[in-house]
């Protein structure tokens, strides 16, 4: 270890201990809120205290505000056993985590403690603060090339780039968790960091075992805060998820960060805000919720060096109201949204992505002209069909009345089939375009062997790719190359 590193490690270690032991006393407990006197001079909002409850139980708490010269604390555990006069000990102000690559395959709680019964976690040498500022906007790289999400509908219609942040918006039971598990298993990322926030305990276990499975878990760290845990734990689980993602990003990894769900995180923030005496605003959410959301979500994205954090965050839209305040706020922060539609799920088409209502803001800049034209044509057909859907279904549309509608009726069932994907199937990015071209009866260039994207054995999309002939698709796309290709394609009359 070099001298500066050793010194930094020593200082980090030193940081873990408070400079001196300072105590206050519990002066009142009301609901979740614990009021402490005697420490108001040294505590600040976000600071930490350990309350020593009856039975020698140490309850970590966070300062959420001050009132009448008392510090207002919210505990990370149950308030049971906390009595008037109990000692409140000043703790380390800035909680940190010391991750290590050996954490992959493990499940932890919001405090970074293992909860999978697989023994203790090795502590890394670097301390990462749980609450960190995102890299400054000008120092950040731009989003990278396309990332293969392994889900055909997303790869083609909502193409995502490395370092992009997308929201998955859906009502309850429309397939968010299943889609997330597909993303965790199939995305071409180096590492996954997954935050499960506010789910029922039983669901978490089922999701880990049945949906994520050992294959997905092996390349992931899962942070869990279930619905029965106090709001500071649910909030901190999100901070920890981001801190772990930042650790791997800083080590040059392409990280996929999944959080299910941001809504439950916002609900935890709301509970904390209300307990601290903030006034409720939209739907009871306090103003601080809307200040906090961008700060957290901005932590995902490209880094300043090689690594990146691609973020996919679910947003629960209550009563399928896509304009509720959290959905609205999150949509404004992220680089795109994927809408899952209950009607589509009811038809049995999974993943139930509403292609027309979902967008990726990095498209079409990341596409070649041929890809853009292909996707635009498919969208146009879907849109025409949707406009006429009712008439077509009740049989009021007369074939031959409008060639555009006839064309939509001809192609849309196959496009729908293209959009559906079994959760056990992995689809790759490049062959998705060839498969869609085949559905639309368009010629498509044979795949560029150097792209290495067509290596999926036995997938339907690959077979489609094999049958398509013509010019090779240019490999990786960046903005400049895409523009060059666009020009070249224009000259060559490509894309038919
Ligand atoms: N890809 C899929 N293939 C087949 N069935 C699916 C798929 N995705 C979802 N489903 C069905 O939909 C149900 C609900 O899915 P899921 O648990 O992912 O929804 P959710 O949006 O996460 O729900 P909640 O809001 O309760 O968390 C699943 O139990 C399953 O029956
Ligand atoms: Mg779910």
Question: Could you please describe the fold and organization of this structure?
Answer:
- The longest helix has 25 residues, at 369-393.
- 37% of the residues lie in helices and 19% in strands.
- It is elongated, with a radius of gyration of 25 Å.
- Strands 8, 12, 13, 14, 15, 16, 17, 18 and 19 form a 9-stranded mixed β-sheet that branches. It has a 6-stranded antiparallel barrel with strand order 1-2-5-4-3-6.
- Strand 1 and strand 2 (33-37) form a beta hairpin.
- It has helices at 3-15, 152-157, 176-186, 201-218, 231-250, 262-275, 287-297, 325-333, 342-346, 369-393, 403-419, 429-439, 460-467, 479-492, and strands spanning 23-30, 33-37, 48-53, 57-67, 70-75, 87-90, 96-97, 107-108, 128-129, 146-147, 160-161, 165-170, 191-199, 220-226, 254-260, 301-302, 308-316, 336-339, 359-360.
- It binds adenosine-5'-triphosphate (ATP) and magnesium ion.
- It is an enzyme of class 7 (translocase).
Residue-averaged pLDDT: 84
Largest sheet: 9 strands, mixed
Number of DSSP helical runs = 14
Which percent bin holds the helix content? Answer: 25-40%
Shape designation: elongated
Bin the strand percentage: 15-25%
**Which secondary-structure class do the elements indicate?**
alpha/beta
Which ligands, by name, code or SMILES, are bound? adenosine-5'-triphosphate, magnesium ion
| Spatial gap, N to C terminus | 59 Å
Count of β-strands: 19
Q: Give unreliable regions as ranges.
A: 448-487, 489-496
Radius of gyration: 25 Å
